[in-house]
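1st attempt posting a full record on here, be nice pls
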Amino acid sequence: MSITNDVLIACSDETRRGGVKKIFVVPACEVDSFTAGASHEYVAAVTTVGQKFFEIEGEFETKPFTAEGTTENGSNVTENTLEVFVPKMEKVKAKELNDLFAGGKIVVVFSVYDVVSAFDRAFVLGYDEVLMLDAAVRATVNQTLEAELQGVNGYTVTFSGKQTELLREYVGTIDSNISGSISFGS
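the predicted structure (as tokens):
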């Protein structure tokens, strides 16, 4: 495959925003597939009937995403990492985060502070058209309780894994546990 179109910067690209806004997770074993659209996007998530995405809420500006691409032996791979800081160590959060940590592979849909039409722009992490569910990510959880009275107190959740494609934008709807039906993209 070779490039077939120009990659241009529009005026609106000059005022882009960074930052992950919301993170939704679902066990990989509950995902059947994603439906690819005409461009580099997914237009639907096909999950087990009744399966909902669960939100992992973190503090503002504590949710970085990075992807490092490599090419070896003619094969492209990206190492993806999404982090979120969840403040205040306590039993309710610890139970859910421990279940996430021990629960195996997951698929993530995360939105960013970049609105498309009336909806947030979102991306799929942990699924691609080559690896499919083999691209699912794992979650690790670190706990920090600093000595200072105003020190850090909370959990850093890291989602990491490999994909063979750049993240696909998600232009569709998911059913979330707490917020009901959520639409992304345009």
